[in-house]
């Protein structure tokens, strides 16, 4: 994501923006975003044990999605690299496989931090 990290935290049943600023967010917008993340499905494994991630654009990924459990333990971060035809390359950090993700699912995610902050902090109509 362009513009640096964006950090959301769930407190009880409510979501709060922690970075780049502090404040409560539109619950419905956050739930929509979380649903988009859960809709991301790998189409195929394109490489196993890839040591050189440059061909996939994963040495400097376009996106990194990191999530933590309620107990504070981190889930494997998803990094998304370059686009090629109708897909993006992706990898779960800590695992050796490189995957293919459908481009339209990746492109449904906000492409920069400022857009995402505006989306999450707007009041519902």
- DSSP strand (E) fraction? 25-35%
Name the helicity range: 10-25%
- Uncertain spans, ≥5 residues at pLDDT below 50? none
Distance between the termini: 27 Å
Radius of gyration: 15 Å
Mean pLDDT comes to: 84
SSE string, helices as H and strands as E? EEEHEEEEEHH
Structural category is alpha+beta
Tertiary shape: globular
The tally of strands reads: 8
Number of domains: 1
Number of helices: 3
- Main beta sheet strand tally, sense and closure: 5 strands, antiparallel
Strand order of the largest sheet: 4-8-7-6-5
Task: Explain what you see.
The chain is an alpha+beta fold. The protein has one domain (about 5-120). The chain has helices at about 25-40, 105, 115-120; strands at about 5-10, 15-20, 25, 40-45, 65, 80-85, 85-90, 100. A hairpin with a 3-residue loop joins strand 2 (about 15-20) and strand 3. It is globular and about 40 Å long.
Key descriptive features of the protein:
8 strands; 22% helix; five-stranded antiparallel beta sheet; alpha+beta; three-stranded antiparallel beta sheet; 125 residues; 32% strand; globular
In short:
22% of the residues lie in helices and 32% in strands.
């Amino acid at each position: 994501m362009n513009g640096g990290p964006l950090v959301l935290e769930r407190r009880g049943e409510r979501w709060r923006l922690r970075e780049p600023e502090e404040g409560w967010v539109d619950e419905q917008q956050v739930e929509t975003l979380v649903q988009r993340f859960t809709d991301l499905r790998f189409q195929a494994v394109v490489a196993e044990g890839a040591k050189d991630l440059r061909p996939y654009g994963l040495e400097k990924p376009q996106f990194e999605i990191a999530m933590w459990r309620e107990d504070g333990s981190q889930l494997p971060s998803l990094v998304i690299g370059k686009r090629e035809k109708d897909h993006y390359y992706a990898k779960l950090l800590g695992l050796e496989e490189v995957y293919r993700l459908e481009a339209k699912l990746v492109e449904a995610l906000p492409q920069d931090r400022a857009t995402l902050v505006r989306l999450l902090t707007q009041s519902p109509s």
